[in-house]
């Protein structure tokens, strides 16, 4: 019967959110951003609100807090130029950013030559967004409701879930 063996040491590295956020921001500059198209029409209170544009997912930021599910806090944004119409008229164009916060897990992929760690967005669910207009007029209440509507949240959720993990 063989004796138990071990290497006699262990290595653990602890990093803070500032370090991880810097790495995520740097990595985001190396690949084209994930984009998603907005739904073309959203109905808000009987009005047909036209949305024309696509948004690009910005690099996420993370925060750490002890929790039983061992999840991390993730803040994500999506930016772009959107044209709004109401019932076929009243065209306005704005540049805006949608932002949301959610909890997500981490993934670790090990290969013979590397270790890849990242935010696992495969089960992300966007349930609400904040809207910041960065260029253009303030959004009318109907337009703000349209960009925060279920179809837009579903499009953003699908885009996040489709972000591939490195292999």
Q: Roughly what is the average pLDDT, rounded to an integer?
A: 90
Q: In one word, what is the shape?
A: elongated
Extract low-pLDDT stretches.
none
- Kindly report how far apart the N and C termini lie: 39 Å
Report helical residue fraction: 10-25%
The major beta sheet can be summarized as: 9 strands, antiparallel
Give the class from helix and strand content and strand pairing: alpha+beta
Strand content: 35-45%
Q: How many strands in all?
A: 9
Radius of gyration: 20 Å
Number of helical segments? 3
Query: Order of helices and strands, N to C?
Result: HEEEEEEEEEHH
| Overall number of structural domains | 1
Secondary-structure map:
Layout: H1 17-28, E1 35-37, E2 41-44, E3 47-52, E4 54-57, E5 61-63, E6 72-86, E7 89-110, E8 115-120, E9 130-135, H2 141-147, H3 150-161
Could you explain how this protein is built, in words?
The chain has helices at residues 17-28, 141-147, 150-161, and strands at residues 35-37, 41-44, 47-52, 54-57, 61-63, 72-86, 89-110, 115-120, 130-135. It has one domain. It has 167 residues and is an alpha+beta fold. Strands 1, 2, 3, 4, 5, 6, 7, 8 and 9 form a nine-stranded antiparallel sheet that branches. The model has no long low-confidence stretch (mean pLDDT 90).
